[in-house]
Automatic annotation (TrEMBL):
<feature type="transmembrane region" description="Helical">
    <location>
        <begin position="96"/>
        <end position="114"/>
    </location>
</feature>
<comment type="similarity">
    <text>Belongs to the EamA transporter family.</text>
</comment>
<dbReference type="GO" id="GO:0016020">
    <property type="term" value="C:membrane"/>
</dbReference>
<feature type="transmembrane region" description="Helical">
    <location>
        <begin position="267"/>
        <end position="285"/>
    </location>
</feature>
<dbReference type="InterPro" id="IPR000620">
    <property type="entry name" value="EamA_dom"/>
</dbReference>
<keyword id="KW-0472">Membrane</keyword>
<feature type="transmembrane region" description="Helical">
    <location>
        <begin position="12"/>
        <end position="32"/>
    </location>
</feature>
<dbReference type="InterPro" id="IPR037185">
    <property type="entry name" value="EmrE-like"/>
</dbReference>
<feature type="transmembrane region" description="Helical">
    <location>
        <begin position="211"/>
        <end position="232"/>
    </location>
</feature>
<feature type="transmembrane region" description="Helical">
    <location>
        <begin position="126"/>
        <end position="143"/>
    </location>
</feature>
<dbReference type="InterPro" id="IPR050638">
    <property type="entry name" value="AA-Vitamin_Transporters"/>
</dbReference>
<feature type="transmembrane region" description="Helical">
    <location>
        <begin position="180"/>
        <end position="199"/>
    </location>
</feature>
<protein>
    <submittedName>
        <fullName>Multidrug transporter</fullName>
    </submittedName>
</protein>
<feature type="transmembrane region" description="Helical">
    <location>
        <begin position="244"/>
        <end position="261"/>
    </location>
</feature>
<keyword id="KW-0812">Transmembrane</keyword>
<feature type="transmembrane region" description="Helical">
    <location>
        <begin position="38"/>
        <end position="59"/>
    </location>
</feature>
<feature type="transmembrane region" description="Helical">
    <location>
        <begin position="149"/>
        <end position="168"/>
    </location>
</feature>
């Protein structure tokens, strides 16, 4: 029963994380128009690092071990550098609805890396539910007629791959280091490298940016870059990486909903139908068994 409660809490925290992440692309689209790619993609980490440093000092957290540092470096490359920078660049040219359907492939990337990095082996039922969700997303993309891949599309797909690795690595590490500590240390690792390019990109015109641009940037720095990851990694640590990752199928449609509310992008009945199918795939896969690889004695 205790294990069942842990799983339910993990799924709930995962949902909170997904809702927070779903506002990332809309907020990025608003902020990047006024601040540019470098400030939005890297500057959010510099701001988040200030908050994180205070928290780490107050709590007197001990430094990660060399082995943990290697995993944190992977998290930093994906969640702190790659995804924010690539999506900021892509959102200069693409509507949020476009980006949302490509980000929907993230659960498959996460589950695949989970097998490699965390030793989880999803069952056939899990892969069937993943295939249903992915197929729905592909049909949705084809219906919208996005056409051939552009450089912005390639940037988003690359962002999805490296973030999938980061999610899986962070979810594994969260079990021993702590959920919020994973993203906190990853931010601290990445921020020093971003200070100079961010400083060089700052202009006096930023001071005249509208209030919605500043709110979007602050949201990206405080919530998208830190607090959302706390909920997300906690969820994966409690509920299992592959299983909790399926909640991400809701993310593209939440993104489209938020894009409709804040950016006035249109939403169609077809989008709603696809959303229902994707939600069904999440429900179908929720009870799928996920087993651990058997470790061979003597392996490190």
């Amino acid at each position: 029963m205790q294990g069942e409660k842990r799983e339910k809490l993990g799924l709930l925290l995962g949902l909170v994380g997904v809702i927070c992440f779903s506002l990332t692309l809309p907020a990025t689209r608003i902020a990047v128009e006024h601040f540019g790619t470098t400030i939005v993609g890297l500057g959010r980490t510099v701001v988040a690092a200030m908050l994180v440093a205070v928290v780490l000092l107050i709590r007197k957290e001990k430094l990660p071990s060399p082995r943990q540092f290697k995993s944190l470096l992977i998290v930093a490359i994906g969640a702190v550098l790659g995804f924010p920078l690539l999506t900021s660049w892509a959102m200069e040219d693409l509507p949020v609805s476009h980006g949302a359907v490509e980000v929907a492939l993230l659960p498959l990337a996460t589950a695949g890396f989970a097998m490699l990095r965390a030793g989880e082996i999803p069952s056939l039922k899990f892969w069937i539910s993943s295939a249903i969700g992915s197929l729905a997303v592909i049909i949705y993309a084809l219906h919208l007629g996005f056409g051939s891949l552009q450089y912005a599309d390639l940037a988003l797909l690359t962002a999805v791959i490296i973030l999938g690795l980061s999610y899986a690595e962070g979810g594994k590490l969260a079990k021993e280091l702590g959920s919020w500590q994973v993203i906190a240390w990853a931010i601290i690792i990445g921020a020093p490298f971003f200070i100079i390019p961010v400083a060089l990109s700052m202009t006096t015109e930023m001071l005249h940016a509208p209030i919605q641009a500043w709110i979007s940037f602050i949201y990206l720095a405080v919530v998208s870059q830190f607090l959302a990851y706390v909920a997300w990694y906690s969820g994966m640590a409690l509920g299992g990486i592959a299983r909790v990752s399926q909640i991400q199928y809701l993310q593209p449609f939440l993104m489209i909903l938020f894009a409709t509310l804040f950016l006035h992008e249109s939403i169609t009945y077809f989008t709603i139908v696809i959303a229902v199918i994707v939600v069904f795939s999440v429900i179908f896969g929720k009870g799928a068994s996920v087993r651990k690889k058997v470790e061979v004695a003597g392996e490190g």
